[in-house]
Write a structure and sequence with these properties.
Elements (H helix, E strand, L loop, with lengths): L2 E5 L2 E3 L5 E8 L8 E6 L6 E6 L6 E3 L7 E6 L4 E6 L8 E7 L8 E5 L2
Parallel strand pairs: 2-10
Antiparallel strand pairs: 1-3, 3-8, 4-5, 4-9, 5-6, 7-8, 9-10
Length: 113
């Protein structure tokens, strides 16, 4: 069965950086586009970034454009999200998801001084 396990979240100061990982199993990872979403307290889930099967075609949500970088390592069945210049409004639970609608459990990112 499909499993997606996020890791790498934590507490960082504004302006800091964090790298999230999503370990995938139970399916052929390289055959699926992948996505990151986030959900802040009291807010609806929002799109963060997407990446195509090859890793070449990438898109970002407006609020993270220019600060976050999505990438993938198909040989390791792993999706990444490099987050730089973090802001308090980036505080959320971050989820990875396949293009077919499977979700991980999420990892908490808190940006605070």
């Amino acid at each position: 069965q499909v499993q997606l396990v996020e890791s790498g979240g934590g507490l960082v100061q504004p302006g800091g950086s964090l790298r999230l990982s999503c370990a995938a199993s139970g399916f052929t990872f390289s055959n699926y586009g992948m996505n990151w979403y986030r959900q802040a307290p009291g807010k609806e889930r929002k799109f963060v970034a997407s990446i195509s099967r090859s890793g070449i075609t990438i898109s970002y949500g407006d609020s993270v454009e220019g600060r976050f970088t999505i990438s993938r390592d198909n040989a390791k069945n792993t999706l990444f999200l490099q987050m730089n210049s973090l802001k308090p409004e980036d505080t959320a639970v971050y989820y990875c998801a396949t293009s077919s609608g499977d979700w991980g459990q999420g990892t908490q990112v808190t940006v605070s001084s």
